[in-house]
Design goal:
Layout (H helix, E strand, L loop, with lengths): L3 H4 L1 E2 L10 E3 L3 E2 L5 E6 L14 E10 L6 E7 L20 E6 L5 E9 L3 E11 L1
Parallel strand pairs: 1-9, 3-9
Antiparallel strand pairs: 2-4, 4-7, 5-6, 5-8, 8-9
The structure holds fe (ii) ion.
Fe (ii) ion binds next to loops.
Length: 131
């Protein structure tokens, strides 16, 4: 039996299209809001079809030395060409990209998790310094 952590795959986002790309400053000001862009496919595009797409990205932050992890937000991508005319005939496709904003008083690790409807769970992280 596997635990959740063992089910989440990780890789270099430049070589693996399922890995979330986190774009934000490496150093932020204490208690000052900053933006984080989380997306997939910056280097290698991930399909966005009714049959194969990214369902969500979730962001977490674990302050250095803290026992607990904080959930920054969940971002659902829910339109992938579905329609009454059939799969991939719809007019609307949500792109798997989001910009979130948060602040922290402590440095720590920002973790992005993504879910592909057929290739499962993936993660990446970026360490954030606070000045
Ligand atoms: Fe996939």
């Amino acid at each position: 039996m596997s635990q959740l952590g063992e089910m989440i795959q990780s890789a270099n986002w430049k070589e693996e299209k399922h890995v979330p790309v986190i774009e934000c400053p490496e150093k932020v000001n204490k208690d000052e809001m900053f933006q984080v862009k989380a997306s997939l496919g910056k280097e290698i595009a991930h399909p966005n079809t009714t049959e194969h797409h990214i369902r969500w990205i979730r962001l977490y932050f674990k302050p250095e030395g803290d026992k607990f992890t904080y959930h920054i937000g969940s971002f659902e991508f829910t339109a992938h060409g579905e329609s009454v005319d059939g799969a991939n005939k719809g007019p609307v496709y949500t792109n798997h990209s989001v910009i979130a904003e948060f602040k922290t008083s402590r440095p720590g690790r920002l973790v992005a998790a993504s879910y592909c409807n057929i290739h499962g769970l993936w993660e990446s992280y970026k360490d954030i310094q606070v000045q």
